[in-house]
């Protein structure tokens, strides 16, 4: 898996603070953006994060490029509806030189399980290639391709949705592959807006686990803001 931060709103914390402050300021947003002191930016952000007035977080966004993940992951990912996605197409891209796949550790760690997995994958790919060779359109032959097939995807989320995504997918109860991706995304985003992403991630970082009886039981220290 490779995750890259392609682009984000320049100075996202100042942009968010400017949008929030505009509601109460006698001057315009452009002037606020230029003149608001850093301590005022931090104060406004603190109010936003503690009060739950998260609409202002929608004024900053992040775009990630993700390679080497499975279709099983992207099927989960697109359930996050307040986001934009562009994915490598199995309709237009023909995999005539083999197909890379993602193999779970629970399978790779056991030779017998791995043999079952590899046999099924090889059979699916061989059948796919035969259909292509027989003139079947790639958009139809792809029906044979497995969830394990590697794919590439570009993801754009505003900060509000990104925090929501990280809250769900950094949790230990999230599926392992998308959890790995979420942690990588957080590691890339956090340096660009350290106050906004200070306690981003699984809910247990901020307080009690909401999973009830399904909790993993890991004790995380609660983050305290300055």
Automatic annotation (TrEMBL):
Cofactor annotation: FAD
InterPro entries: Thymidylate_synthase_ThyX, Thymidylate_synthase_ThyX_sf
The protein's assembly and partners: Homotetramer.
Catalytic reaction(s) noted: dUMP + (6R)-5,10-methylene-5,6,7,8-tetrahydrofolate + NADPH + H(+) = dTMP + (6S)-5,6,7,8-tetrahydrofolate + NADP(+)
UniProt source species: Paraeggerthella hongkongensis
EC number: 2.1.1.148
Residues reported to bind FAD: 55, 79-81, 87, 158-160, 164
NCBIfam families the UniProt entry points to: thyX
Enzyme class: transferase
Annotated cofactor note: Binds 4 FAD per tetramer. Each FAD binding site is formed by three monomers.
Pathway(s) it belongs to: Pyrimidine metabolism; dTTP biosynthesis
Origin organism lineage: Bacteria, Bacillati, Actinomycetota, Coriobacteriia, Eggerthellales
GO molecular function: flavin adenine dinucleotide binding; NADPH binding; thymidylate synthase (FAD) activity; thymidylate synthase activity
Residues the record lists as binding dUMP: 76-79, 87-91, 142, 169
Similarity comment text for this entry: Belongs to the thymidylate synthase ThyX family.
Protein name: Flavin-dependent thymidylate synthase
